[in-house]
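Quarterly update, task 2.4: SN-glycerol-3-phosphate-bound model.
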Amino acid sequence: MKLFIDTADLKEIEQIASWGVLAGVTTNPSLLAAVDGDEVSIYRRITELVDGPISAEVVADNREDMVTEGRRLAALHPNIVVKLPTSEEGLQATSVLAGEGIRVNMTLCFTATQALLAAAAGARFVSPFVGRYDDIGNDGIEALRETVDALMGSAYEVEVLAASIRSPIHVIEAAKMGADIATIPPKVFHQMLKHPLTDAGNQKFNEDAAARRARQGG
Ligand code: G3P
């Protein structure tokens, strides 16, 4: 499973990108609203930090405006993927943009039926939301599993991009069920890495190495 980062915070992207683990980036209007700066400059900087699909979301409510904004975003860089909601207007715009060779990531996807429609409309990525199901007391992992199963062996070139990830458990479960990608908040990346036994073991190794050097007069 490929790992994307879900943020528009350039410092967070730069830090996790330094680990050598990122295959792409996803943003959305809320994540963009959380950072200052010119939108185009932010997207352009992200394409410099991570060499992979960079999702930039359209903010419009009709096909024509979605298509116009999608073309504008796609023209910023070859790695820009246009993000559209899994709505009727989003499907309409996806089929137009996909027909022009522009890659689309259909987001706010909550059911396997929505995912099937997104794939059929030409979306290259489908983003089933996990955490927002959990937020209302439902089982986001089971919903994701249904979408992964439904798109398994799809006749279309589409990748399941697990989104709305809230914990390392979500990442593990997405990987175990065969999701193609998980887009992960910076905080969860740190949770994935950190373990007290690693820290304690590393400290002990360093102490023992220092003690040996001292004995050797090093
Ligand atoms: O960016 C799409 C998705 O990952 C957002 O997730 O945390 O707002 O439910 P969240």
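Highlight for this quarter: Strands lie at 2-6, 24-26, 54-57, 80-85, 104-109, 125-128, 159-162, 181-184.
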